[in-house]
Amino acid sequence: MIKKKDKRCDFLKMIPLNAKRLLDVGCGDGGLSARLKERGVEVTGIEKIEKLCSIAKGKLNDVISGDIENLQLPYPCGYFDCIMYADVFEHLMEPSEALIKHRFYLNDNGCIIASIPNVRYYKIILRLILAGTWDYADAGMLDRSHVRFFGLVNIIELFNRTGYGIIEIRRNIVGGRWLKILNLLFFNALKDFLTYQYYVKAEKNNNSSEASIAPRKIYKF
Question: Is the pLDDT assigned to residue 202 strictly greater than 90?
Fold first, then answer.
């Protein structure tokens, strides 16, 4: 779930103005991408929760009911100019497989935009260090339906190994005024800890492959 006090407008501004067909993966009730339909974009949503799917059908051009990890879409190669994942990857068992599968439906000149929660957010770290807790909730960063967690490095690797090149990353900074001032005093060194979500824009990179990317050493504890 996207936090109420977010920057949804900043996220939607990452969608190219010339995009005519958009796939909203995990569209919920369609409220976010309905704004794009208002400006003339043909919006198709995917949603597995039936109640939300029914609501979205009244807002979007088309809505497909189903789990995106086990769903084949009835669209030809390169049909969509943009594919949007608004707080979706953290709910998927294999987000990389979804990205690879959806490459087929993305126009060669199209792009993907995604909002992804940042597990390095300072409140998560403070609770873990000071209280020793990792408490799941009904919504937010530790939504109990989250099965994947990402830092910035993990996000970059996710796109690189699935054949995409990141062209833009924005931050949804959420923090008290004093923390923002402290960040300025430290020459923006705290920005990753104040980032609640990363907004990523990526395009197909037909010259890249998983095999060509140098592996990073992952420590086991």
Answer: yes
Q: What is the pLDDT of residue 208?
A: 47
Report the alpha-carbon distance of residue 99 to residue 117 in Å, rounded.
Answer: 17
Task: Convert the pLDDT of each residue in 70-129 to its tens digit.
Answer: 999 999 999 999 999 999 999 999 999 999 999 999 999 999 999 999 999 999 999 999
HEC string of the chain? CCCCCCCHHHHHCCCCCCCCEEEEECCCCCCCCHHHHHCCCEEEEEECCHHHHHHHCCCCCEEEECCHHHCCCCCCCCCEEEEEEECCHHHCCCHHHHHHHHHHHEEEEEEEEEEEECCCCHHHHHHHHHHCCCCCECCCCCECCCCCCCCHHHHHHHHHCCCEEEEEEEEEECCCHHHHHHHHHCCCCCHHHHEEEEEEEEEECCCCCHHHCCCCCCCCC
* Confidence class for position 176, pLDDT limits 50, 70, 90: confident
Furthest C-alpha separation in the chain: 52
CATH class of 8-117+148-173+195-205: alpha beta
Please state, in angstroms and rounded to a whole number, the distance separating the CA atoms of residues 30 and 42: 13
User: How confident is the prediction for the chain on average, in pLDDT?
Assistant: 89
**Bridge partners, 85 (sequence order):** 25, 114
Tokens of 11: 């996220």
Rounded Cα distance, 91 and 41, in Å: 26
Q: Give the amino acid at 96.
A: S
Residue 6 confidence (pLDDT): 44
